[in-house]
Specification:
By secondary structure, the protein is α+β, with helices and mostly antiparallel strands. The protein has helices at about 40-50, 65-70, 85-90, 90-105, 105-115, 135-150, 160-165, 185-200, 270-275, 315-325, 370-385, 405-425; strands at about 30-35, 55-60, 75, 120-125, 125-130, 155-160, 175, 180-185, 200-205, 210-215, 220-225, 230-235, 255-265, 280-285, 290-295, 300-305, 335-345, 350-355, 360-365. This is FAD dependent oxidoreductase domain-containing protein.
Length: about 425
């Protein structure tokens, strides 16, 4: 999503980025076409190119202009659902594989940064899920029990410990998952693109995939460049930016806007008391707020925004009010950056993997965990493309199920967000 004139993301591409795009200047034939140049698409392209496949990535915008480059940079292990629920829902074999995959999602990001020496600012000091009600604290206790039983480096926090680690007021306790952390998401996008191109993948930006059809054993992707790309396999990695390219995909998702603000660099006294150890935080409210510190000492604060694109700076005011409720000492601190990106929610709050026809894969629905999830998923998609064994995928292949009365459902989500935000405010 191209930032509006008053929308100023904090993140910056790495100064030494060696990514160079290659436009589509003639008809092409490759092993794999990836539609979408976000984290999922680039992770898949990199994994495939490293294994010797010829890869073409088609990105409708410039790199980093979607949610992959505009998110809060929180790297979180696990899924929305706890391990026991996943085991019960998917069965022993599939559930266990999915829990193991989700547990390692943050590792996929930080290990890649370390082993490849990526120019990505990062801190791995954990992720805190802060509880603001007794019911949320009970849920945190249960989550802690389940992950500790599986050997995860996690711990339960009381109210005083959450206050000490976050500097925020009003929490009863919470849960610390030391597997998590933070990164600069835009830098990570560009470094993934660099790895992919250095491995042989070709990336065309500002190029739309405008048609997708089967021709014999191949797929033909028509592009806005005027030339088609033919391949045996296609991965549609468009997530919240999905359109009519794959029938029903966009209508199976509920798009939401994630809004974020960043303060001016905090003065030394506040920098020492607000997130002094650099953890990322999400809370337990119905409309979750999340926050972290940037490498230059700003507080970055995010949450759900209006369903339509923002029209002026006041559309971020609800975030500033929420920030001051948690951090009253920030009264008077300047907000220097405001930005937003589009994310996709699935009705069951699980990521979905689809194969509507053989050789055509689509994945959507990150539920706030896209940085780790989509980075880790790329190599597994390539495993399936090369071997054809569904067990290579951490999630089962499911049919695309458009949401009935999709446009009305999206409108209802907007009304629910406003209602839940009011309830959250009443709870403090």
């Amino acid at each position: 999503m191209t930032p509006l004139h008053f929308s100023q993301p904090l993140w910056r591409r790495p100064p030494r980025a060696l990514f160079a795009g290659e436009p589509i200047s003639s008809p092409e034939r490759v092993d794999l076409t990836v539609i979408g140049g976000g984290l999922q698409g680039l992770s898949t392209a990199y994994a495939a190119a490293r294994r010797g496949l010829s890869v073409r990535v088609i990105e409708a915008r410039e790199l980093g202009e979607g949610a992959s480059g505009l998110n809060g940079g929180q790297v979180i292990a696990g899924l929305k659902q706890d391990p026991d629920w996943l085991m019960q829902h998917f069965g022993q074999a599939r559930g266990s594989a999915l829990v193991d995959f989700a547990a390692g999602a943050a590792d996929a990001v930080f290990d890649l940064i370390q082993t490849e020496g990526l120019d990505v600012e990062h801190v791995r000091s954990g992720w805190i899920q802060a509880a603001h009600t007794p019911a949320a604290l009970v849920a945190a206790e249960e989550r802690n029990r389940q992950w500790r039983a599986r050997g995860a480096d996690v711990m339960l926090l009381n109210g005083a410990e959450v206050a000490l680690l976050t500097g925020a007021s009003g929490y009863l306790g919470g849960w610390l998952d030391r597997r998590g952390g933070t990164i600069d998401p835009l830098a990570f996008v560009f470094e993934l693109a660099r790895l992919a191109t250095q491995s042989g993948a070709r990336i065309a930006t500002a190029t739309r995939a405008i048609g997708l059809r089967r021709e014999g054993a191949d797929w033909l992707v028509d592009t806005s460049a005027g030339y088609p790309v033919r391949s045996r396999s296609v991965v549609v990695a468009t997530n919240a930016y999905s359109d009519r390219l794959v029938a029903g995909l966009a209508r199976s998702l509920l798009p939401l806007h994630s809004f974020q603000i960043a303060t001016a660099p905090l003065p030394p006294d506040l920098r020492e008391t607000i997130l002094p150890h650099g953890q990322a935080v999400s809370d337990s409210r119905r409309i979750v707020v999340y926050y972290r510190k940037s490498p230059d000492g700003r507080l970055v604060f995010g949450g759900r925004g209006r369903m339509a694109e923002p029209k002026n700076e006041t559309d971020w005011d609800h975030l500033q009010r929420a920030m001051l409720r948690l951090f009253p000492a920030l009264e008077g601190v300047t907000i220097e950056h405001r930005w937003f990106g589009r994310v996709a929610m699935t009705p069951d709050q699980l990521p979905h993997v689809h194969e509507p026809e053989r050789g055509l894969l689509a994945v959507a629905g990150c539920q706030g965990r896209g940085v780790g999830l989509m980075t880790a998923l790329g190599p597994r998609l390539v495993d399936y493309i090369q071997g054809g064994d569904p067990a290579a995928l951490p999630l089962p292949l499911t049919p695309i199920r458009p949401i009935p009365f999709h446009s009305l459902r999206a409108l209802g989500v907007g009304v629910a967000i406003a209602w839940y935000r009011m309830l959250d405010g009443m709870e403090g």
